[in-house]
Design a protein that fits this description.
Blueprint lengths: L2 H5 L2 E5 L7 H12 L4 E6 L5 H10 L4 H19 L5 H19 L8 H8 L1 H15 L5 E3 L19 H11 L8 E5 L2 E3 L5 E3 L4 H13 L3 E6 L20 E3 H9 L10 H7 L2 E6 L7 E5 L8 E16 L9 H11 L4 E6 L3 E7 L5 H13 L4 E15 L8 H8 L7 E4 L5 E7 L3 H13 L1
Parallel strand pairs: 1-2, 1-7, 2-4, 3-4, 7-9, 8-10
Antiparallel strand pairs: 5-6, 9-10, 11-13, 11-14, 12-13, 14-16, 15-16
Helix pairs in contact: 3-4, 3-6, 4-5, 5-6, 5-7, 8-9, 9-11, 10-11
Length: about 450
């Protein structure tokens, strides 16, 4: 590969549906063949595998039930294996991973140990990268399966590990860059390694984040996120058929959308892209010819309303104490505890003696565990009320805090719904509403009709 091609390096990430089976992997191989600058490929686990692994890691089951889950995983991977030309070369390596997975799944402490959960969950990406490498090699592309744990160093917060940016940059340049001259490296998303050599994970959806981190570390010009939708839409097309794909987004808009529930991108993906001005493309691996969405530093047009997102499974926590009135340090104490548990608060309201805030609370997640630990600690010095069954609906756009009539149009559209909390003004790119989960779909539809149709 020439120096100019190195300069124009592209990192491509393929999601679970893109590597779900052999035919889907062939589609991805053609996308890579059509862009000679694609030299690093990051893959998720094949569709369905991660859900089965999460069930094993978080649900108390009998050995027979666990073995049934393992059979389902093996069936998904073997269907791809048996479509390969070089089965004999790949089969022993896949079997090693399946055996390792079985050992972890049947470990008596798998439900209780976060390190074992991460080791188990990593197998989905490790198997799909092995199989996809074989697919690329039989399409006349020289490809190698690269263990991302050699590069993607993290702390030891299992389930939600924080990457070490300096180590990633150094290791990726040393261990990956020289090979890219004549080889495509296929590696795993979502997976990392701590300083003690233990396997860690970046949290659900972390494959996007992996791709962006590697793009940053390698000095790539572009990062492609290939999924099952044609770019980023004005809202989730499963909620309303009137949703339409967007040709471009700014980094700030995309970060807001990802943070507030857009499933196309992992929330942290924009951070490395923004730091190094890496252009990000989102498109469909099933229909690459239809184009997609480019995410860039500066857009040609910056409308007041760009998109609407919905993030489900929210809880509202209210902390209350009469001692808060005229007291110094109460808020500091509350948010110090939240920070110690590494939680992110979205919406906040205060009164004379209470503070309410929202937390993301997906079931069977690290956040759910941390939320419970945080609430128990807060309860030691104040009254704590937890309200569930809420969703967070956010309108993302530009200069929303200063544009005349921007907010009135939004509130007029949702006049018939109860708004439990409103967050507006701290950021010019969003206005967020906490609503009942039973109303959230209708709220999104009402907003989309008013703002985009």
């Amino acid at each position: 590969m020439s120096n100019s091609a190195i300069h124009n390096l592209n990192v491509a990430k393929f999601g679970g549906t893109s590597v779900a089976n052999f035919a889907a992997m062939e589609n991805c191989a053609r996308i890579i063949q059509n862009n000679p600058n694609t030299k690093v490929v990051v893959v998720s686990a094949s569709a369905g595998v991660t859900n089965l692994l999460v069930d094993i890691a978080h649900t108390a089951m009998s050995k027979e039930q666990i073995k049934q889950k393992l059979i389902e995983i093996e069936s998904i991977q073997h269907a791809i294996l048996h479509a390969l030309e070089n089965i004999d070369e790949v089969a022993p390596k896949l079997q090693q991973l399946l055996d390792s997975l079985s050992d972890l799944a049947l470990h008596e402490e798998i439900i209780h140990r976060a390190d074992l959960k991460d080791a188990l969950l990593s197998h989905g990406e490790r198997m799909s990268s092995l199989l996809f490498t074989a697919v690329l090699n039989q399409t006349q592309l020289k490809a190698e399966n690269f263990d991302v744990r050699n590069v993607l160093k993290t702390d030891s917060e299992f389930g939600q590990a924080v990457p070490d940016l300096q180590q990633i940059a150094t290791a990726s340049k040393q261990l990956m860059l020289p090979t890219l001259v004549d080889t495509v490296l296929v590696t795993q998303g979502f997976v990392g390694c701590d300083q003690q050599g233990n396997t860690t994970t970046l949290g659900r959806g972390g494959s996007d984040f992996t791709a962006a981190l590697l793009a940053e570390g390698l000095g790539a010009q572009t990062c492609e996120i290939w999924t099952d939708v044609i770019g980023v839409y004005t809202t989730d097309p499963r909620i309303t058929a009137a949703a339409r794909p967007l040709p471009e987004l700014s980094f700030e808009e995309a970060a807001e959308m990802a943070t507030f529930g857009a499933k196309v991108l992992h929330p942290a993906t924009m951070e490395p892209a923004l730091r190094q001005d890496i252009k990000v493309f989102v498109g469909s691996s099933r229909e690459p010819e239809k184009g997609g969405t480019w995410i860039v530093r500066d857009c040609k047009v910056e409308p007041s309303y760009r998109a609407i997102t919905r993030r489900k499974e929210q809880v509202m926590v209210t902390v209350k104490t009469p001692k808060m009135m005229y007291a110094q340090g109460f808020l500091q104490k509350v948010f110090t505890i939240i920070a110690e548990h590494k939680l992110s608060v979205d919406l906040i309201t205060t009164s004379e003696i209470s503070v309410s805030f929202t937390l993301d609370n997906p079931a069977n997640s690290v956040l759910e565990r941390l939320n419970q630990e945080t609430i128990e600690e807060l309860a030691q010095f104040c009254d704590v009320l937890v309200e569930e069954n809420y969703d967070l609906v956010t309108v993302v756009g530009n200069n929303m805090h200063s544009g005349a009539g921007v907010s009135s149009k939004i509130f007029a559209a949702v006049a018939d719904y109860n708004l439990r909390m409103i967050c507006y003004g701290a950021n010019p790119h969003n206005l967020s509403l906490l609503v009942s989960d039973s109303d959230s779909k209708d709220v999104v539809c009402a907003l989309h009709k008013s703002l985009f149709e």
